[in-house]
Fold this sequence. Notes:
With 233 residues, this protein is α/β, with parallel strands linked by helices. It has helices at 27-34, 51-64, 76-84, 140-150, 173-186, 189-192; strands spanning 12-16, 39-40, 69-74, 93-99, 127-131, 154-156, 206-207, 213-214. Helix 2 crosses helix 3. It is globular and about 45 Å long.
Amino acid sequence: MSAVPNRTPRPGVLVLPGLNGSGSGHWQSIWERHHREFQRVEQASWSEPRLGDWAATLERAVRAAPAPVILVAHSLACALVAHWARVGATERVAAALLVAPADVDALERVEIRSFAPMPLERLPFPSWVVASENDPFVTLDRSRSFARAWGAPFLEAGRCGHVNVASGYGPWPEGEALLAELERAAMEPLRRARSHEGALEPRVAAPARGGARRLPAFDAAAATSLGGRGDRP
C-alpha cells in the first residue's frame, strides 16, 4: 500500500474590517465575493468598537476555523490584531496582511480610544504591512515604525489615501496577488520555521529605498460607482 502524502492544509482567510465596517465596494468585500471561502469576522458594533469585544470575537473566529488562518486586516483592525496577539490563540494564525494601519495614538476620536496605545511588540506570526504615502489616518513614517516593531516587511503602496473606496479604490488586484503570495509562503513548512528576523519576504514588489518594498500602482475605480464608503479608519 502506498503511503498517503502528508499535505499541509491550506490556510483559511479571516477578513477584519475597521471602524464602520467595509462597504460593498471595499476591496475586502470584493475579495469575499470572489472567494466564497473567505470569512468576515462580524463584530457586534462596527460604529462603536470596544477592544475587548472585538478581540473576543476574533478569538472565537480563530478557534472555530478548521485550519490555521491568514488574517486580512484593514485600518483599525490592524490595531486589533496587534492587541489580540498578546493573549490570543496565535498558534492558529499562519500569517497576517495588515493594510493601512490607523494610528490610534494620534487620532483624537472617542470611538477608537480603547485601542490605544498601539502595541509595539513583535508579532508571533509572519506579517506584512502595506501603507500609503498620503493616508489621512497615519503617516508613512509611523506605518513604517509599526512594521519595524511588529517584525514585518513594509510595503509602500504609493499615494493611495486610506486604501479604501473613499480614496478612489475598490478592486485591488495587486493586494489580492500579495495575499496569494503570502499564502504560498505560509504553506511552506521550511519557511514557517522563521529566521531570527521572524518574517517572510514578499516577492511581488520591487525593492525601494530604506529596505521597504513598493507595490505596483493600483488600478483605480471610481468611488461613486462602487458605493459602500463606511470604512474609516
